[in-house]
Write a structure and sequence with these properties.
About 45% of the residues are buried. It is built from 13 helices and 13 strands. The chain is an alpha/beta fold. Bound molecules: pyridoxal-5'-phosphate. Pyridoxal-5'-phosphate (PLP) binds near residues 59 and 85. Pyridoxal-5'-phosphate binds near residues 58, 82 and 191.
Length: about 375
Amino acid sequence: MKEITVTRPSLPPMDEYINEIKSIWETRCLTNTGDKHIRLQAELAKYLDAENAELLSSGHAALELTMEALGLEGEVITTPFTFASTANAIVRRGLTPVFCDIKPDNFTIDPSKIEELITEKTSAILPVHVYGNICDTDEIERIAEKHGLRVIYDAAHAFGVKYKGKGVGSFGDVSCFSFHATKVFNTVEGGAVTFRDSAFGEKIRKLKNFGLCGGEDTDTAGCNAKMNEFSAAMGLCNLRHIDEEIKKRKAAAEGYLAALEGVKGIKLPECTADTEHNYIYFPALFDETKFGAGRDEVFKALKENGIYARKYFYPLTSNLKCFKGKYRGKTPTAEYVSERILSLPMYSSLSQEDIDRVCAVILKCKK
Ligand SMILES: *Cc1c(COP(=O)(O)O)cnc(C)c1O
């Protein structure tokens, strides 16, 4: 039985990548803002509709360095319905996460629950564009402005998404992207920030390169979060194929929808007129009282059939071993979703045959 994994990294044609990296053997420039880094950074800023972009070594580094460059202190309001990285980054910066609940329709932060969590210690809001669903940016940014708070979006899921006609890199003070192998666009490992303020860019450039300030001296205790030329070359190649990548994912999502839409007790991703989606994941929410089987039962049945779905996001970051019981915020909707959500296999080379197999197992669980 052929195994179906939850994700499968995209690669450009091998020849194209080899062609792209050939010049490195002449220049011997392997890293430290080489030609490929410069080109990719400019192309990404354009693609993401951002005034400025700065490439980094990972999405996690983007989150940590952003909070450092903005000089955040005290508390950061975020959601627990995300990958560990979001909360980890806040805590690793010596900040305190405060957990806000999510909306039941698209699983992003619920703006109507933010203000009650703001105290005099709050310095920023860090919402997540979950599964490529864009947060309620207008409302979040209105609240932030009213209270003098920064807005940093964790946009790791949202590469290439357009919302209300705007690219995802145009929102908030800063947006943080991940180019990890499993994301819609990858540089093997890598990440970036998009932003408006050029002074912020100066700080990020310094922080990602040990704090070096021109000559030999450093004026900030920076780290190393630079993207190397081999990763940037992978990015240049993958960016040429990004439209095709998203188109294939869309076809896979349509395959799932055709088989599962209308089945009682399964909530599927909704298309909204204001969003051009990237189809990064295909999350299905199982309501046991209506479907007859719960998420864990479906997960197990799939596994027994060689299909590896992922309980994503479960557990909530507020329930991770290192954080449980430590921080403020009641999040009943996030709890509800986290117990019932399952990310089904989703990648551009997923075949209709594979989708049929996944859906057949799911529908057999129905009681
Ligand atoms: C992938 C991911 C990250 C971390 O990105 P890396 O590039 O793996 O460091 C952060 N937040 C979310 C929501 C992610 O999905």
